C-alpha cells in the first residue's frame, strides 16, 4: 500500500507530496505519475480512515426513542401508541389496570403530541370510556446505554363533580414509569 500523503520516487531519488491537487494538476485522478499513485490505490486508505472515524464517534451517538408500540406501566396498565405523524401527533389506546370506579374497565382512546428529537418530551390525554373522567399525562422518553426505552410520566386525573364546592378533591396527581412490552 502506498502512503497517500508522502511518496519517495526511487528513480529520481527525491521525495514528493501527493495531494488531490497534485494529482489533478498532473492529469486524470486515475492515472499514476512518478510521485503519485493512481486514485484507486488511495481509496482503501480513505475507507480505512472513514471506518476508524465512525468507530470513534459511535459511542457518542444518541439512540432514538420511538413512542410507537406497546407499553406497560408499574401498575400493570397497557398502552398502545400508533399513527405518530411527522409533526409529532399520535393516537392510541389505554387499558388501565386500576380504577376506583365500580364500572367494568374498558379500553379508552388517547391522543397526544411529542417533540421530534432523540429523547422526546410528550403529552397525551386519555378520555376514559367507562367513567366520566379524563387523565392528562406528560413525560419524556429515555433510552439507556443498552438501548432500552423508558417513559417517565406525571399525570393529572380529573373527575366530574356535581358542584364547585367539591372541586377541591376532583383532581388526583401521580407518576408512572412505562417500559416497552416485549
Automatic annotation (TrEMBL):
Pfam families, per the entry: Avidin
Record flagged with keyword Signal: yes
GO-annotated cellular components: extracellular region
Disulfide bond in keyword set: yes
Disulfide bridge map: 65-141
GO molecular function: biotin binding
Region (Disordered): 18-38
Record-linked InterPro entries: Avidin, Avidin-like_sf, Avidin/str, Avidin/Streptavidin-rel
Keywords: Biotin, Disulfide bond, Glycoprotein, Secreted, Signal
Compartments where found: Secreted
Subunit structure: Homotetramer.
Family per similarity comment: Belongs to the avidin/streptavidin family.
The protein's role, per its UniProt record: Forms a strong non-covalent specific complex with biotin.
Protein name, as recorded: Avidin
The species this protein was found in: Cairina moschata
Amino acid at each position: 500500500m502506498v502512503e497517500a500523503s508522502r511518496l519517495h520516487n526511487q528513480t529520481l531519488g527525491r521525495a514528493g507530496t501527493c495531494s488531490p491537487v497534485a494529482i489533478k494538476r498532473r492529469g486524470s485522478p486515475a492515472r499514476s505519475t512518478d510521485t503519485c499513485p493512481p486514485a484507486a490505490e488511495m481509496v482503501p486508505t480513505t475507507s480505512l480512515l472513514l471506518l476508524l472515524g465512525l468507530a470513534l464517534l459511535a459511542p457518542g451517538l444518541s439512540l432514538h426513542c420511538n413512542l410507537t408500540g406497546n407499553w406497560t406501566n408499574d401498575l400493570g396498565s397497557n398502552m398502545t401508541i400508533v399513527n405518530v405523524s411527522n409533526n409529532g401527533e399520535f393516537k392510541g389506546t389505554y387499558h388501565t389496570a386500576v380504577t376506583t370506579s365500580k364500572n367494568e374497565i374498558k379500553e379508552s382512546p388517547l391522543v397526544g403530541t411529542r417533540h421530534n428529537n432523540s429523547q422526546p418530551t410528550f403529552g397525551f390525554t386519555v378520555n376514559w370510556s367507562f367513567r366520566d373522567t379524563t387523565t392528562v399525562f406528560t413525560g419524556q422518553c429515555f433510552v439507556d446505554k443498552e438501548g432500552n426505552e423508558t417513559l417517565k410520566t406525571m399525570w393529572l386525573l380529573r373527575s366530574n363533580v356535581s358542584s364547585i364546592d367539591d372541586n377541591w378533591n376532583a383532581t388526583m396527581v401521580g407518576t408512572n414509569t412505562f417500559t416497552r412490552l416485549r
